[in-house]
Amino acid sequence: MCSVVECLLAKLTNANFGCVFFLQDFLEYKAYPIMEGCVSFLLSWLIEGNEGYLETNPSTSPEHSFIAPNGEPACVSQSSTMDVAIIHEVFSTFLSAAEVELANF
User: How far is CA 35 from each of CA 18, 61, 70, 73, 76, rounded to the nearest angstrom?
Assistant: First the structure.
């Protein structure tokens, strides 16, 4: 499913820019706009679930299959751990970058 690609892009974005806060110009003109776009995309992907929490759907976990209600093996579900972990990491990095940006505003 597409969630793997989206999460990998989010992870790559975070990995590339998570340690550049000391380079103010790079953060302001390159990293922050890319992180902002990534966060915007992830927010548009999240939906409100049955219990009122935001979740990813569809979500896939190809390394962890389960038996669906129809008795067939499946790997597509809602909010796989990988999705949640990467989104949390990207949002946390973005908030840290935003604090740096605001401090230098």
Answer: 10, 24, 40, 36, 27
Domains of the chain, residue spans? 1-48+89-105
Count of CB atoms situated within 10 Å of the CB of 38: 23
* Closest C-alpha to 7, from 77, 61, 70: 61
What would the pLDDT profile of 59-97 be if each residue is shown by its tens digit? 887 677 888 899 998 888 888 888 898 899 999 989 988
Question: Which segments within 1-105 are labelled E, that is strand?
Answer: 46-48, 54-56, 59-60, 66-67, 73-74, 76-77
